[in-house]
Every structure is written in structure tokens, then in C-alpha cells.
TrEMBL record:
Binds 1 Mg(2+) ion per subunit. Substrate binds at V299, T300, T301, G302, R303, A304, R305. Its cofactor is Mg(2+). Belongs to the adenylosuccinate synthetase family. GO terms for molecular function: adenylosuccinate synthase activity. It catalyses: IMP + L-aspartate + GTP = N(6)-(1,2-dicarboxyethyl)-AMP + GDP + phosphate + 2 H(+). This is Adenylosuccinate synthetase. Its main location: cytoplasm. It comes from Gordonia jacobaea. Its EC number is 6.3.4.4. IMP binds at D13, E14, G15, K16, N38, A39, G40, H41, T129, R143, Q224, T239, R303. Pathway: Purine metabolism; AMP biosynthesis via de novo pathway; AMP from IMP: step 1/2. Mg(2+) binds at D13, G40. Homodimer.
């Protein structure tokens, strides 16, 4: 029995798709446990074909794997159908995809409210993806959400949408000066879409637990990252769910004691999308270098990512918060050709050295990186197959990150392709 959690250790976009893909053939199940189509995973197949996935678990690209959209996910029906047909058009078998009956549906009014709220906040905006994620989770917590299983009872579904829209329309019209949404139109639209995915709705929690009892391997795939977690991230510049490892049990319906491995995905430098503090952010030519060499553009929104050096304070924090047992270090190749490679080992906050995440939001806003410098390497490492193939200085950089982060770096990505991964210790 093995349940493995895959979690981004920074602000998301660490390259989780590559890790899922590496584990692919050893998995029987891949489960998304939180988030929605605010996520974007890029997977490059051996034949060079590239897939960008948003809502659907990346196990869909590995034949024979069962894929589950867990109860913790928010599902935009239109996006789901478009993503499914995009995969089917490229001959990907999607028959094994199931949607938890308890997953919340992201409705057109959630998208409308997300966009107007951000506009209203002006320069205080969160920089959301504009996909309605926050408003959908707000409804879930306020107990006025609509769940996947609701589309199986059209009367109940219509009642829930009408009740939700009563308040939403007041907000849209009276606060934001927008047009009201017609309940009957929303009901019709979503029920028509539901015809395309109704057959996939299932009670996925017992299926997953039975699979674990049979000894099958389940990957619980997080989206976003540790610092975007609504509890443990850089609040309020976070997403509205719990990507951290504890969220994997809640968002899939398996017990926490079933989790045997927590695999953190860690980029060899740092990136962030949207607003909020970012101590190692670079505003000079090195920031441009990382963005360009690393191809740092959001898969979902196409927005340019903010770039900075590796931050070991964050990595240490992620190791603890998630109970990370192994790291997959991605994009090491992007750092080739630097004379020296900076690592942020601590912060200076208002004149004092701080080794942990500051307690207050103000403290984190004031945090200035304290750098240590490692000698760089100039060799092209994209064809290295083993740790020993790496130049000595690249090995030293990895070992120092491992020491500072507090968990074993088991895999190292040296390029985007499926075969461009060095495995130091097998995950499964
Ligand atoms: P939301 O999830 O759309 O509400 O956006 C909240 C914050 O999370 C914003 O700063 C987004 O840019 C960020 N965010 C959401 N999803 C991702 C992701 O998959 N990668 C990186 N940042 C993300």
C-alpha cells in the first residue's frame, strides 16, 4: 500500500507534471486533491509531444492509470469538457477519469465575481488567475456551494443555483454595477454541460481506500504550492485551498496514516505569479536570464513569472509543513553558465538575521535575503544521466540545497524531456 503526495515546495510551477510523469508507470491511481483550473501542468512525452493540463490529473497521459478529480477540487464544467475533448482529439484515452460526487462545481457567477473583485481591489489585488477559484471555495465554506452530485437531481440543482444567485446578483448589481445573471440560463447551461461528464461522477472515496487495501499505488497530486496554501502560505496572497500535504487526505478522503511518501517539488531557483512579497526576487538582468532560460511563463494564464534565486528559508519551511520525505529538484540545467550561484540561506528583517519564516506579514515584506555563493558550472548538463555525470560544482550546489532544505534530493531534472531526470533514490 502506498499513497504518495506530490506537492510544490515554493509558489507553484515547480514542474510537478514532470515528476508525475516519472512515476507514471508505477501508479495505478492519480488523484487531484485541491484547486481547479488555476493550475497548469506541462508534460513532455518521449516523442516530444507537449500537453498542458489544468483540471485533469496528469496520470491521464499514462495508459491504464485511473484518474480522480477529488472532493477537494473545484470543477468548472466548461473547462472540464474542453480539456477532455482536447485530449480525445489527440487520441488520449480518457475513459478512466472519475469526478468525486462531492467536488464543488465552479459556476459562471464565480468567475464573474472573481474578476470584479480583483478590479475593485485595484493595487491591493491578489493577482488571481481570474478563474473563479476564490468565490467557489467561499461558497463551499459558506455552505451554499453546488456539488457534482447535484447535477444528478435537476430539481435540487435548480434550487441551489437559484438560492446562490439571489445573493450573488445583489452583489454583482448593487456593489459592482454589473448585470445580474439569469438563474434559468445558468441552470440550463450547466445541466447541458453535465450531459458530457455525468457518467464520470462517482463515490471516489471508497474506491481509493479499497485500492490502497489491495496494495495499489495512489499518487495524490497537489497543485499550486506550499506558499500559496490558504493556511500556511503568504496570506493573503494565496489561493483559497490547502495544497500542503495535510490537504491531500482531506481532499481525497483517505486517512493521513495511509500516506507513505511526501515528494516535494523544488525548483533550483524561485518563481512566483501574481502579487505578494518575494524576498529573492530579481529586478535586474539575472531575473531576465532566469525567466528567458527557464521559459518562465504561466501555463494557465500566459503571465510572465517573477524570478529569483533559491530561497532555503522557504525550502526548510516546506519540508516541515508538508513532512517532505524526498525532493525532486527541477530545472537545474537553467543555472548552467553562471560564475557563481547565490543561495538565500536566511533573511535580514529590520537589521536582524532571521532563519525561519517571519511570523508577521510585515516581517516577510521587510525580509531581505542573506546570500551564500556557490561556484557555478559552465557545462551543458542536459544529457547527464547520473549524479556522478554532473560537474563537481553542480553536485556541490545540489548537496548544499539538500543540507539547507532538510530532506533528501532524490531526483534532479536537467531538461524538460521525460528522460532528462537523474534518479538518485527511487521514490517507489
Ligand atoms: P487564484 O488561485 O486564482 O485565486 O489565485 C491566487 C494566487 O495564487 C495568485 O497569486 C495566483 O497567481 C496564484 N496561483 C494560482 N494557481 C497557481 C499556479 O498553478 N501556479 C502559480 N501560481 C498560482
Amino acid at each position: 500500500m502506498a499513497a504518495i503526495v506530490l506537492i510544490g515546495a515554493q509558489w507553484g510551477d515547480e514542474g510537478k507534471g514532470k515528476a508525475t510523469d516519472l512515476l507514471g508507470e508505477k501508479l495505478q491511481w492519480v488523484v487531484r486533491y485541491q484547486g481547479g483550473n488555476n493550475a497548469g501542468h506541462t508534460v513532455v512525452l518521449p516523442n516530444g509531444e507537449t500537453f498542458a493540463l489544468h483540471l485533469i490529473p496528469s496520470g491521464i497521459l499514462t495508459p491504464g492509470v485511473n484518474n480522480v478529480i477529488g472532493n477537494g477540487v473545484v470543477v468548472d464544467p466548461g473547462v472540464l469538457l474542453t480539456e477532455l475533448s482536447g485530449l480525445e482529439d489527440r487520441d488520449v484515452d480518457t475513459t478512466g477519469l472519475m469526478i468525486s460526487a462531492d467536488a464543488h462545481l465552479l459556476m459562471p457567477y464565480h468567475v464573474a465575481i472573481d474578476k470584479v473583485t480583483e478590479r475593485f481591489l485595484g493595487n491591493k489585488k491578489i493577482g488571481t488567475t481570474g478563474r473563479g477559484i476564490g468565490p467557489c471555495y467561499q461558497d463551499k465554506i459558506a455552505r451554499v456551494g453546488v456539488r457534482a452530485a447535484d447535477v444528478l437531481d435537476e430539481k435540487i440543482f435548480a434550487q441551489k443555483v437559484e438560492a446562490a444567485l439571489e445573493l450573488k446578483n445583489q452583489i454583482l448589481v448593487k456593489i459592482y454595477n454589473r448585470r445580474a445573471l439569469e438563474p434559468a440560463q445558468v441552470v440550463d447551461e450547466v445541466l447541458t454541460q453535465a450531459e458530457g461528464f455525468k457518467h464520470r461522477i462517482a463515490n471516489t472515496q471508497p474506491l481509493l481506500n479499497e485500492a490502497l487495501e489491495r496494495g495499489e499505488t495512489v499518487l495524490l497530486e497537489g497543485s499550486q504550492g506550499t506558499l500559496l496554501d490558504v493556511d500556511h502560505g503568504t496570506y493573503p496572497y494565496v489561493t483559497s485551498s490547502n495544497p500542503t500535504a495535510g490537504g491531500a487526505a482531506v481532499g481525497s478522503g483517505i486517512g493521513p496514516n495511509k500516506i507513505t511518501t511526501v515528494l516535494g517539488i523544488l525548483k533550483a531557483y524561485t518563481t512566483r505569479v501574481g502579487s505578494g512579497p518575494f524576498p529573492t526576487e530579481l529586478f535586474d538582468e539575472w531575473g531576465e536570464y532566469l525567466a528567458k532560460t527557464g521559459g518562465e511563463v504561466g501555463v494557465t494564464t500566459g503571465r510572465a513569472r517573477r524570478c529569483g534565486w533559491f530561497d532555503a528559508v522557504i525550502a526548510r519551511y516546506a519540508t516541515r509543513i508538508n513532512g517532505i520525505t524526498d525532493y525532486f529538484l527541477t530545472k537545474l540545467d537553467v543555472l548552467s553558465s553562471l560564475d557563481r550561484v547565490p543561495i538565500c540561506v536566511a533573511y535580514e528583517v529590520d537589521g536582524e538575521r532571521v532563519d525561519e519564516m517571519p511570523m508577521t506579514q510585515t516581517g516577510f515584506h521587510h525580509a531581505k535575503p542573506v546570500y551564500e555563493y556557490m561556484p557555478g558550472w559552465w557545462e551543458d548538463i542536459s544529457q547527464c544521466k547520473t549524479f556522478d555525470d554532473l560537474p563537481k560544482t553542480a553536485q556541490d550546489y545540489v548537496l548544499r540545497l539538500e543540507e539547507l532544505s532538510g530532506a533528501h534530493i532524490s531526483c534532479i531534472g536537467v531538461g524538460p524531456g521525460r528522460d532528462q531526470t537523474i534518479v538518485r533514490r527511487a521514490i517507489i
